[in-house]
Amino acid sequence: MPKVIPDPNEITKPFWDAVNERRLVVQNCTKCDLLQYPPLQNCAKCGSPEGLEWKDVEGKGHITSYIVIEDGRLDRRMPDQPYNLAVVSLDADPGINFYSNLPGVDVDKVPVGAAVRVIFEECGPGQLIHEWELAE
Amino acid sequence: MASANEYSWRRDKDGLGVWEHRGKVAIAGYGHSPIDRRWDGVSMDETLGAYTVLACQKAMDDAGVTKEQVDGIVVCQTTIAGASGGAVSNWAPRPYFDAPYDSEWGLTRINAEWLVKQMGFPNIRFAPDNCPTISEMVGLASQAVGDDRCHTCLMIYPTGNLEGRYRRGGENAEDYASGERQWTVPWGNHGGNDFINIFPHNQYCTKYGGEHDDLFPFVTNQHRNGLMTPWGFNATHDIEQITREDYVSSRFIIRPLRLWDCDRPVNASAAYLFTTADRARDMKQPPVYVLNHSQHSFKPRSTQPTLDEIEEWTDKAAARMYEGAGLQAKDVDIFNPYDGYSTMTQFFLEAFQWHGVKRGDAFSFYAGDITVEGPHPFSSSGGNLGNGRTRSAMYTDSIEQLRGTAGSRQVNVRAETALAAFTTPPSGGWIMLGKYPS
What we know:
heterodimer; B: alpha+beta; eight-stranded mixed sheet; 29% helix; 15% strand; globular
């Protein structure tokens, strides 16, 4: 079953537009030199929107932790159970993290610490979503 | 009615010093309704509204207070069943009943207006809208009494749950995720304290050593304490004490989180009566003094809170509480942290350093003697794991321990101060109670 489909708003639309172009971008506050994901209206550090820009980042990361969804609450994902839910830290800034279902990795066989790279998969009509797969 | 949002009552910053009303506010009474798994939809004397009226009356009777004396009501208006809606948290679209059950008020939610109408309080002068959950309402009620917004305040926490479960239906049944959910739901995180803590819990096991099932001694002790709590769900429903075999063979919810790591959703209501220390001394029960209240609301840097962040946040919460109470870890006799999921309690225990427990020590502490009879009576309430998800056991046990009325749970060590909370690592609040005002 495809993932639940993200519903962009004014702030997040540029992110999802980039994903649909198979690019991974995050917000960057030029005043604070700070990357930010998920995107926010203002910089979380200085509180201002003035320095925020979108920045392409290399889709490389590492798995920091994972769980297995056995009895979740999301109707659309129930047919997938059990499935992995991992946290991936971004190599460009390990303080930034993403969720991933790690397609291709057996349930509960997640190699914590392993390198991953971003991929894009379709989750709805005309909507891609960022995912991560083992780098090797 | 005024909104709680318009009143600067929170103590949610570092360096606020000792609370200005320390020892001048007291809890004089409490009351619990029966605790059911769910409402049957038929018994009108077992609705959330009926249970709330009953809990309020018990709290007033416990204190020896009449409805004429009550001039403040602080009640949580939201449903504990979660914002996802659906049949779990709303009676509609089923037809309503005759008044007073002709809307969601009284069936799935309680507000001050509904309660005043049912109970006939004639002198209410403080009844704010938009009250938060019990974790912060104990602070709101304490501060309101200290600030003379009211002098005798009923604080009510209804925990209505029509189906005895959470987060089914509503937005969790939708194909699209908007707002903050667009960053979590597509991958399977529907939100909640279980997800906040389970990844840091895994990181904790890796960093400090240990395995998930090292939580068993804590979980089983919660159940044991719960069976010694006469009003709790387990004690009133003949729930058997769980064994290690029960625990390790229980099914996973979000692996490694097991069924027995989660509290049981229930339908109930609880009420507490806050008043000035001077008034409390003339009431029926020995006063339990409020020595401080504090709140916190921290934001993670990114999508998923990390162990480092949770340790930083809980350290800050502990520092705020100890500073405001003018006490240190060694001064705390009773410690009742939140346990709605067993995977978070170690973060609180280690941050507050109760009985000298430092970062990474919790599992070995759990493996020792943490029974109420022993030297380290940790979480003597049994919490939510032992009593059902009322989120009130931590407060009631703290009051009872300080009064010396905890029955078979009464600790053998000194019981002059108590810390209690329903809080997650990022948000919520703590309260410090004392047998003496200073």
